[in-house]
Design brief:
36% helix, pyridoxal phosphate, 4-stranded antiparallel β-sheet, alpha/beta, Aminotransferase class V-fold PLP-dependent enzyme, transferase, Aspartate Aminotransferase, domain 1, binds 4'-deoxy-4'-aminopyridoxal-5'-phosphate, aminotransferase, 13 helices, Aminotrans_V_dom, 17 strands, Aspartate Aminotransferase, domain 2
Length: 415
């Protein structure tokens, strides 16, 4: 009963001449497109036109689609009536937009365990970085302590819903409660959480949520920042140009209030439609998605735990609630070579490296001879056969080591 992804006929040529279907364990980076998303995009493609810019029939229809997509995303995260949805390129863009809107005298508090997208955009001189926490209670206490020491003025606490490295879920509501008690606002990076668990702004009592369509089973190019309007309406527009303007004369410009202020230029209407269609499908199938992933994750973690020489890494501990991501190393085999062998010999796609979370990976691997790890992240495209294939491949690598030489050159920008 899980929503169908677009059927993939991707066959992987293996080193021994066989071919196999691709076992995608990289959902945490980008997830495959849903059938219903493809259908929504295909329906819009023949007749889309400019948004908020024309009185022609196609323009008016497209404007409706765009605003309907905005309403769907608003509902997807349980936003308050007066919260606004600003379409962005992805989570990175959404968090950078919020960073530009943080008042000049604000203090920002952020854990070092964040993805770089949530760690780096904030003004350095006014940001307090907290060490990666080791328990939920320690995370809440660290935020409370930092807020107690923060100067007067506006405050923003930035937290990640689920770690992109370990999949572990942070105590969002507890941190938000402490933040509120100290007059702080909270921004939730939901890039990894939203595809797997309900994110409800009101229940969590957070002020902003950032997310990416391409991790939510929609194609690239659209994400959103959802939340309070006041800081954003007071900030300079993100992109200066058409759409952001209410009136322009020779010597003065009046900028729009609301989402338009930060959506300068012609919007990515097809991206917004795709994102909204993904939100609708995920909302409809929430329970089934969670069940599917919980059972595959348990199978994967149990399988890996039984293999000598395999080390898994957690921020909070093995019992922490988590989405379908596992971070591991194999004794004696570098993570780059593990991922190369998994791909060439088994048709399995994982990610290796530091996952755009260098401080966290440094902290997790502090006692390990390895500098990088392997991340396997499952999702709607994952089957039991894929999990069993991964476990048996890891067992073989841990037991026999590498039997073939692979190029150890990093295949990306030390990601
Ligand atoms: N935050 C987290 C937790 C992520 O996992 C990612 C993507 N890996 C991002 C932010 C950035 O997302 P995007 O690349 O879509 O901007």
């Amino acid at each position: 009963n899980i929503p169908a992804t677009v059927a993939s006929d991707l066959l992987v040529p293996l080193a021994d001449g066989r071919v196999t279907d691709y076992a995608n364990f990289d959902h945490g980076a980008s997830a495959p497109c849903l059938e219903s998303v493809r259908a929504a995009v295909e329906a819009a493609l023949p007749s889309y036109a400019s948004v908020h810019r024309g009185n022609g029939y196609a323009s008016r229809i497209t404007t409706q689609w765009y605003e309907r997509a905005r309403a769907e995303v608003h509902g997807f995260v349980g936003a308050r009536d007066d919260d606004q949805v600003i379409f962005t390129r992805q989570t990175t863009d959404a968090l950078n937009l919020l960073a530009r809107a943080v008042p000049a005298d604000a203090t920002v508090i952020v854990f070092e365990s964040e993805h770089h997208a949530a760690l780096l955009p904030w003004p350095a001189e006014r940001t307090t970085r907290l060490a990666a926490p080791t328990s939920h209670a320690a995370a809440v206490t660290a935020v409370a302590d930092a807020l107690r020491e923060a100067p007067e003025g506006p405050r923003l606490v930035v937290i990640t819903g689920a770690s992109n490295v370990t999949g572990e879920i942070f105590p969002i509501a507890e941190i938000a409660a402490v933040a509120k008690a100290h007059g702080a606002r909270v921004c939730l990076d939901a890039a990894q959480l939203a595809p797997h668990r309900v994110v409800d702004i009101q229940e969590l009592d957070v002020d902003w949520v950032a997310l990416s369509g391409h991790k939510l089973y929609a194609p690239y190019g659209a994400g959103a920042l959802i939340g309070r309007a006041d800081w954003l309406n007071a900030a300079d527009p993100y992109l200066l140009g058409g759409g952001a303007t209410a009136a322009v004369t020779s010597d003065a410009t009046v900028w729009n209030q609301g989402p338009a202020r930060h959506e300068g230029g012609s919007p990515n209407v097809i991206g917004a439609i795709a994102l909204a269609a993904a939100c609708a499908a995920i909302t409809e199938h929430r329970e089934a998605i969670e069940q599917h992933e919980r059972s595959l994750l348990a199978r994967l973690r149990t399988g890996l735990a039984q293999i000598a020489g395999v080390n898994t890494y957690d921020i909070f501990g093995a019992d922490a609630d988590r989405v379908g991501t596992v971070c591991f190393t194999i004794d004696g085999v570098s993570s780059t070579l593990v991922s190369a062998a998994l791909s060439a010999e088994y048709g399995i796609g994982v990610r290796d490296g530091k996952f755009c979370a260098h401080p966290l990976v440094g902290h997790l691997l502090a006692n390990s001879p390895e500098a990088t790890a392997v991340r396997a992240s499952l999702g709607l495209g994952t089957t039991r056969e894929h999990v069993d294939r991964l476990v048996s491949a890891v067992r073989s690598l841990a037991t026999n080591g590498l039997t073939t030489e692979y190029d150890e050159t990093p295949h990306g920008c030390q990601p």
